Every structure is written in C-alpha cells, then in structure tokens.
C-alpha cells in the first residue's frame, strides 16, 4: 500500500512490499498486510495501517472514495496488448480521515488501475502522465515511450457521468528535470501556450511527481503530473537502493 502525504509541516511516505502470506483478495476486498481496500456499497474504503520509510513513522487513517460514475473498461497502452490502464472513476469525491498524522480533508479525486502480463520495464522506456480537473469533467494525458522507441500518446476527456472521449493529444513540451536525480519531465499543453512546474512533490532516482501549470482544451489548469523512467528503474544501482525506501517483508 503506497501512501504519500504532503504538507509544509508533515510529510509521510510509506510503501512496504509483502510476501504471499500477507496478501489476500476477494471480489470486493484487497488486503495487503495490515492495510486494506474494500468496496462497501458504492464506496471504496481504504484503511491504512503502515509505517513510513526511511524514517519509520506511523501512517494510519481511512480514505473513502465516492465515484460519481464508473467508466466502461480499460485502454491498451502498448501495441502487443500486454499493458492496460483503466480510469475506473476519473471523477470522484474523496474523504480523508488520518489518525496519524492527525489531519482530514475532502475534495475532488481520481481512481484508476494498471495491469499487465509482463513487468513495466519490459514494455516501456519512459512515460509522462497527468490528470487535470476541468471546469466540466476532467482529462488525462499519457505520453509513453515503448521499449522499441515508439511513442504512444493518449488524450482522454471524462464527463463525470461515465462518458469518455478521445481528443487529439496536444503538442509536447519539455519541463525542467528534477533537481536531485535529474529525472527528465515533459507535458502536453495547448498549441502556442507554455507549461511550468509549480511544485515537485517526489524527486527519486527513477520517478518524479509534480504539479504542473498548463493550458488544456482552452482552460488554464493545474495538473497532477508523474514522470517514470523505466530505463533508470532497471539499473542495478537503483534496484539496490529500493529496499531503503520500500522495505520488504517476505513472510
């Protein structure tokens, strides 16, 4: 269970890898160690009971995701059909009640899932992804580079009622690389407009999470943005670093 909390006073991050005995799944519930997520009626309830890393501070609380509507099915991300992405509920209301650290809020949210028949690094070199709340509905942009160098851009608009519409991917422009690990970043924005990094939330050896200001479908927007370098992830030195941020419990 990956949990990331950001703020000026309390920043917590947790992601513990667990062995088979720590996992169980049914049609309505997924249990990962002491944490779980389960459908209770039309609400996805996420119960978090984790310890952060590399500083082992407790992260405990409950997140409730109330989808406005569910979309009809997944999208294929590669030509061979080995990787799929499903924006299950691109428009949701989210309620967060954290016990440790003590904080709570509610607002607009997003729910998706990725799946595949091979590791990500076997299919991709790199991708940028962003999700944007619009005045009406929301939009998601994917810009993936496959292992053979082929580009696979994808631009989708969601109406908040379960409807999905493809639109022409906007032009791609570069963004500044991250400060510490020099992860390259890029995004897509309307022609004849610019984009800027508003805040870098994660700067890791193979992954960056940011908020980006841009213009999309004629609107000024702030997008939640991710950049992932699978080439960097697949190097030996990065693999050796992973257990310091992602502890492994194998029993």
Shape: globular
Helix content: under 10%
Oligomer: single chain
Regions with pLDDT < 50 over 5+ consecutive residues? none
Order of helices and strands: EEEEEEEEEEEHEEEEEEEEEHHE
Q: Number of folding domains?
A: 1
Distance between the termini: 16 Å
Structural class: mainly beta
Alpha carbon gyration radius: 18 Å
Number of helices: 3
Mean of the pLDDT scores? 96
* Largest sheet entry: 8 strands, antiparallel
* Proportion of strand residues: over 45%
Short description:
The protein has 3 helices and 21 strands.
Report on the structure:
The protein has 251 residues and is mainly beta. The chain has one domain (67-249). It contains three helices and 21 strands. It has helices at residues 120-123, 230-233, 236-245, and strands at 3-5, 12-14, 17-18, 23-25, 29-32, 35-40, 43-51, 58-67, 75-76, 83-100, 103-116, 124-133, 138-146, 151-158, 164-166, 172-175, 185-188, 196-203, 207-216, 219-229, 248-249. β7 (43-51) and β8 form a beta hairpin.
What topology does this entry show?
Elements: E1 3-5, E2 12-14, E3 17-18, E4 23-25, E5 29-32, E6 35-40, E7 43-51, E8 58-67, E9 75-76, E10 83-100, E11 103-116, H1 120-123, E12 124-133, E13 138-146, E14 151-158, E15 164-166, E16 172-175, E17 185-188, E18 196-203, E19 207-216, E20 219-229, H2 230-233, H3 236-245, E21 248-249
Parallel strand pairs: 3-21
Antiparallel strand pairs: 1-2, 4-5, 5-6, 6-7, 7-8, 8-10, 9-10, 10-11, 12-13, 12-20, 13-14, 14-15, 16-17, 18-19, 19-20
């Amino acid at each position: 269970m990956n949990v990331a909390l950001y703020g000026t006073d309390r920043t917590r991050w947790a992601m513990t890898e667990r062995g088979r005995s720590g996992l169980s799944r049914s049609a309505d519930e997924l249990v990962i160690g002491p944490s779980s997520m389960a459908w209770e009626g039309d609400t996805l309830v996420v119960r978090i009971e984790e310890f952060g890393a590399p500083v082992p501070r407790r992260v405990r609380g409950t997140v409730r995701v109330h989808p406005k509507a569910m979309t009809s099915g997944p999208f294929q991300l590669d030509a061979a059909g080995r990787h799929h992405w499903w924006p299950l509920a691109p428009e949701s209301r989210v309620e967060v009640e954290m016990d440790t650290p003590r904080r709570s809020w509610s607002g607009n949210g997003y729910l998706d899932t990725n799946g595949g028949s091979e590791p990500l690094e076997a299919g991709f070199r790199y991708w940028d992804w962003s999700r944007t709340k619009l005045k009406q509905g929301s939009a998601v942009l994917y810009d993936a580079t496959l292992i053979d160098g082929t580009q696979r851009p994808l631009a989708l608009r969601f109406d908040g009622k379960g409807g999905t519409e493809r639109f022409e991917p906007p032009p791609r422009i570069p963004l500044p690389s991250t400060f510490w690990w020099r992860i390259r970043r890029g995004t897509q924005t309307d022609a004849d407009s610019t984009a800027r990094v508003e805040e870098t939330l994660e700067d890791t050896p193979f992954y960056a999470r940011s908020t980006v200001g841009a213009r999309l479908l004629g609107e000024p927007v702030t997008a939640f943005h991710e950049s992932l370098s699978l080439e960097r992830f697949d190097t030996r030195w990065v693999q050796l670093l992973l257990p310091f941020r992602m502890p492994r419990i194998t029993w």
